[in-house]
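[Solved] Which block belongs to which protein?

Original post:
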Amino acid sequence: MDVLSAPRTAPPLHDLLGVSFVFNSPIAALAWDRDFACFGLQDGAVAMLRAHWDGAPELAPRPGGGIHIIPASGPPAPPAIFGLHKGQVTGLGADPLGGIVSGGTDGVFQRLIDGEIQTIDTRARKRVAAVAAGRGGRRAFAVGRDVDIKGPEGRRISLPAAVTALAYDPSGLHLAIGFAGGVSLEACGIRTAPRLDLEGAVTALAWREDGTAVAAAYAGGVAVRDRTEASWEFVEGLAGTPTSIGFLTNRTLLIAGAGFLQHWRPKTMAGTYPGLRGPLTCHPRRDIFAAADAAGQIILRRAGMPDAMILREPGPAPVFIAFAPDGQALAFAAEDGEAGTMKVPDLLFRTGTGRSSL
């Protein structure tokens, strides 16, 4: 059994294995490009922080049991900053082919890869509301009630109202579109897309790791659809308005808001994780997640277990949290403009029945 815990006297993991910088502009978006955490700023720039660098501190097994820290032998590299937009960055998305896609209030849809800025499309004097990228070079962006899909099967989709969220499934063949009043599931080669009417705008979308289910959060709750089923299931018993959702690898759905974090599985009521709140992020390979608390800490938890580890000390409230694609690092952004990364190596989650230590 994986064990995730640390002595209460241990400092936050970010103090041991992390780095952060404070930017003068508020942070509006976060996405990962391989080992680089990319932060979209309200001034139109994207700042990239590397989670691993030459001379970074490391964890290593301790002879006789336990783990210890190998101190840093070199400083972290400063952020790499790219001016992508003339106006606020409104959305970032990881591109499976490498790099990230971005949208801004300037109406420009771009891709940033290896320091090169590639303009994909432009809608003059329009605001890009959401962006996404899927496998096979599929990329999508939303302006108003329209979604433009680039790459194979490129087309424009018009929704009944303004689009608010986009998310490709892991295969890149299915695109979930959230809008003011519902959600639509578009698929390559299928003309008729299943849609669900909802009260209010969809604020977040999440696909299960295997792509067999999708969840949509809106002001009134969360709707979940298994793609093999014809109907949606609605999550009951939420403590507030959901703002952040994600699936664990065991298919549990986590739902968080301004003052709560709950977990749900099909045909059950939503249980609670007392003291935790959004934002949240789920590990891509393990049944663990990270979320904020009322003091501004970031806490690492294992699903269904009381074990916990403090990742970041109390401070200004986190606004974004995201694991790296391989789960070996975590990035966060706070409301005061702080952006940081920290290593979260697999060595922290050893097999055994004892308690791990730092």
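(Second protein starts here: sequence line, then its structure tokens.)
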Amino acid sequence: MDNEKDKKEKEIKPEVFKNPKEFADITQNLFSNTGFKDPDFMGYTNERGIDEAKWKKKDLTALVPRKDLPLLDPRKKKNEGQGYLLPTPPKIAVSQAKNIDTLLVLLEKQNRKRENIKQNRAGDLEFSLKDYARIRGKSETELARGGKFIDELKRDLISGGITSYVLEKEKSYLIQNFYGIEVPKAKSREKWRVFFNEPYKTFILNSRQYYPILLQAIQDKNTDDRKGYLYFFFKVVMSYINTRTDFKTQLKVSTLLDKIKISERVKERPDEAFKVLAECIYYTATKYKTIKEVRFFDSGKCGKVEVIKDPARFKEWDYSSFIKEVLTPLGLTDIREALISFNTPPKEKPEGTEETGQTGQQTGQDETTL
């Protein structure tokens, strides 16, 4: 009986893989909740010495070689003598974040096999589209039926292999395409091949600091499309998590909202910002069991802290009640000004994982538990 119980627990144990910290920090900055639309197309440019299509949204520019545009939508027709007036844009939303995480999962699986037969780990992999789709959460029934989702998965894969980025922050950052890709011919039984480019290959093979990738989160269809902020929130929690109980890893709520790519309209309204934050905390805590408790701090003004040990409270709270019960004791009136910290139940970390996160302020002495 004990053996059967151990076997059952092993079967339901969440699968966790590794996302190198350096790589994760780059992709977290790039991808967003909304993809490119036709008005974001800026035309063609030769600024880098090659003919490229250009899209721009806020501080992010994406560049795709003109010759590779047919790969994004092979059924799209050219206008005679003009090429693609409005080419199909590359994917930059949550599906692209899941694409990168899926490739890291597939690569780790293949590198485990290499190590088992005494081969060196590598930064390249090959796979069938069905294997890739299964990691993305597609069922055998869906795979047998096929449909538009197959084309979207292909576009995710191809986008990551042919798109370069320019990110405008305090200065301009050029981010080359993450990997090279070999795309099988239509109806071919050949496998897809991906070759991670530098410096990403070095990050993957040599990094000693990792954030966890939870297979369950990749496969969760509730975090696709318009609910992409739930996936980005989960990834932020995994990178700012407290593995001990000192809660040194703290993040300002306004910064957290930026990291999960919430719209300016929502960020400008404290009640709307709280609504999104509450949804994210409750969903992540109940769906993935990765949040045990949440703490709010007063930005260091008085050293106060409010502890929420039951994340289910975030489902029942409205903003006015939250202000009264949590913010007012901290001397705050705006959720965006608070510092937030997460603690998670002990979990088995991926092999070779070192603790990550940024050390912030120490926990205050004046503590209240809700």
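Accepted answer:
You had them paired correctly. Confirming on the second one: The CA atoms of residues 16 and 348 lie 8 Å apart.
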